[in-house]
Structures are given as structure tokens and as C-alpha cells.
Design goal:
The complex is a heterotrimer of chains A (130), B (98) and C (135). Chain B has 98 residues and is of the alpha/beta class. Chain B contains 3 helices and 5 strands; from the N terminus they run βαββαβαβ. Chain C has 3 helices and 7 strands, in the order βαββαβββαβ. The chains are: A alpha/beta (130), B alpha/beta (98), C alpha/beta (135).
Chain lengths: 130, 98, 135
Amino acid sequence: MKFTIQVNEGPYQHQAADSAYNFVKAALEKGHDIFRVFFYHDGVNNGTRLTTPPQDDRHVVDRWSELARENEIDLVICVAAAQRRGIVDAGEAERNGKDATNIADGFRISGLGQLIEGAVQSDRLVVFGD
Amino acid sequence: MSILHIVNKSPYEKNSLDTAVGFVKNGDTVLLIEDAVYAAAKGGSVAAKLDGLDVSVLGSDLAARGIAEDRLIDGVSVVDYSGFVDLVEAKDSTQSWL
Amino acid sequence: MPDVKKLMYVNRRAPYGTIYAWESLEVVLVGAAFDQDVSLAFLDDGVYQLTRGQSTEGIGMKNFSAIYSALGDYEVTRIYVEKESLEERGLTLDDLQHLTWEDEDEDWAEKESIRLVDRAELADVMSNQDVMFNF
């Protein structure tokens, strides 16, 4: 079965990102397809590579990046939500005249249409949030 | 069509569970995750709200909060993340009562 | 890909206190381009999104309440408002904006967008959806 996952909260503040990650991992282990993970609202903060949690804690951002690398998962950060919260890739930096980028490996920034497309193309949408 | 109602809020703080149970129809399942697992603990004042419903609770969230399975109200099923995935697959849609 | 899916946006939060209401509306506006079978549901504090007379000058935030009245132009014509949620909050339909759409098939006749439904009726509508968006 094909799933799209929506993550509405940032890492560490709320359990949503952890629950979403655990769900995605379990779905992959069972042989399901993850069509897309879409990060919205403060969920876009899952995609900054500048995160530095203490060493004895999980690294939520790196965990997503690894999952994307190993399973070719499409991690999409909503552009409108990202602009508000300062999640920047090279294209966004150039367009908006920013002097840095912070997007983590395996993530890309794209439009809200990607969420709708994910919901329409997948068998199920599962939303994690606050 | 059947719905998996996912609730993640403590019923002692938010009204999400109240609303969710009002929307449960025959064939639906309520899945308690994150802070909503407190709703399934025996002796709590909200336990009665789950009477007669098909309720599952995420075991890892229970364990994290120190709720032993023998302290759950009768009839509640404990699932792991694999079981969570199965529930999503088994129902026609999901509704997260954030 | 199925031709058309039934998509419902479920709104349960008040505006301004958090951004969910506004960013949910942004999804609805973008989603309109996808030609799906779209409806909106407002329940719990979500009913506060539709109230008249919102004025945000004093808090320095964008007042997006006028956009709801433009939803008809985006072919969003079914807006379910839950009766119980209104009553709990001491509200009636008169406290909400008058939302309409123009029916192309009936010579652009103006029709009501808001459908006042009780919880059981809304539960029936929800059980017929393919996808529900939660914010």
C-alpha cells in the first residue's frame, strides 16, 4: 500500500516527528511504499541540518536524512511554511537574497501542491501533529 | 467506509478524545497514541468514554509513560508500530484528532 | 491515479492563537487547482474561524477572515459547520460570515455554502471521504 505522511510539528518540542518516523520505518519494514513525507507548519524544522542535539539523544533530522538515503523517500518541506520559519535551500537563498542555506540532506523544498498530490496519489494519508 | 480515529492528546488536558468518540461509527477503530494513551488507564474518570468502542493503544507510548498493560481498561488492544500500520491499512481512511 | 477523490479539510482550531487555521486555508486555496471533490468541516474551536467582525490591527497579524468568503470562487462550495460546536460556544449561524457560491449550471444562481449539520450527520459525511486533512 502507498502512504503519504504529513508532519505538522518540529522535532523535540512535540512527539509528532518521532511518531511519524517510527510509523514510516514500520511501514517500510512491512513492504509498504512511502510516496512522500510532507513537512508543514513547524514541521519544516525537521529539515534543518544545523540541529545539534546532545549526544545521548536521538538526532531527529539525521534520522530522516538516513531514512531518505536508504529508502529513497521523498521528504518535502512546504515552501510557504519554510519561508516563514527560515528553512532555506540554494534556490530559496538566491530567490530571497539570503546569505546562507540550512536544508538537511534528503529534504527538498516545494509547494503545497505536493501535499495534495500525495494525498490523491496515495492509498492513505496519515497526519502527525499537535 | 471505515475510519481509523487517531487521538494523541491527553483527555485530561484537551477535548480531542471527546470529539473523536462522537464521530466513531460501526466498523471504526480508535487508536490512542502519545499522550492519549492515558485515556486507556483503568480507574481514570474518562475510561467510560471508551465503553463499547473498538480501541487500540500504542504499546511503546504506554511503556514510555510507565503504564503496565494490566492497568488498561478491559477490551483495549495493545499494538506496536507494525500494528499501527496494519490498522491504517485495514480502515478506509484516517482522521487525526489533533 | 483515481480521477477524483473526496477530500475534506477538517478545521478544529481558532484563528490567530496558532497558525493552523491560516496555513490550513492556504492548503485549501492551493488544493483548489487539483479539481478534486473538496469540502471543509468546521467544528470545535474551528467554528471561530468563520465569525464576523474579526479585526487584527491591534495584534499586528494578517486578517485572513475575508478569504473564506472568496472560497466560492475557488469552487469550494460545501462548508460543513457542526451544530453542537456552535451551540457549545453560544453561537448561531448569524454570528458567522454569510458564505455563498455561484452555480454555473443554474445561470450563476447564488447558493449557500454553509451547511449546518449535527455531529451524527457530519460523521456520515466524514465516513464517505477518501482523505481527511488535519491541521
